[in-house]
Amino acid sequence: MLEFNNWYFVLLANFLILLVVLNSILFQPLKKVLKEREGSINDMLADAKAMIAKKDELLKKINVDLTEAKIKAKETYEKFRQEGIAYQKDVMSKAEAEAVEMIEKARKDIREQTERARAALKSDIERLASEIMNKLVKV
């Protein structure tokens, strides 16, 4: 089993000295590096969370701006659509008025030509009637 002799105390002292030396040379600096690493990781996580929050805020702002732009575009579209309809009605009414005017002018021209033709025919009829009467009277 275990014997407590001189070597046991020498080995125990050697182990304790090695433990103290390794603690000051290896374990303390390693713990310090691990704590710094953990702190930098926590800082990076906090930065990432802040960036995610900023991204979400910017996305909300972009969505609001996009919605506003869509509304403005729809309003502009409706405005131009109404202007187009008004312009189309104006053009159509002008064209209709012009067509009515042309039709009235054509009717007036037709009436005048008809009256001239009637007058010419009337004079021809009177002339022919007088010629027929002259021929009948001569016979």
Beta fraction of the residues?
Answer: under 5%
Basic shape: rod-shaped
Number of helices: 1
- Residue-averaged pLDDT, rounded? 93
The level of helicity is over 70%
Rg calculated over all Cα atoms: 57 Å
Residue stretches low in confidence (pLDDT < 50, at least 5 long) are none
Termini separation? 183 Å
Task: Label the structural class.
Answer: mainly alpha
Order of helices and strands: H
- State the total count of DSSP E strands: 0
Main sheet makeup: none
Detailed description of the structure:
The model has no long low-confidence stretch (mean pLDDT 93). It is rod-shaped, with a radius of gyration of 57 Å. It contains 1 helix and no strands. The protein is mainly alpha-helical.
List the helices and strands and how they pair.
Blueprint: H1 6-138
What labels describe this entry?
mainly alpha, 139 residues, 1 helix
Describe this structure in a few short sentences.
With 139 residues, the protein is mostly helical. It is 96% helix and 0% strand.
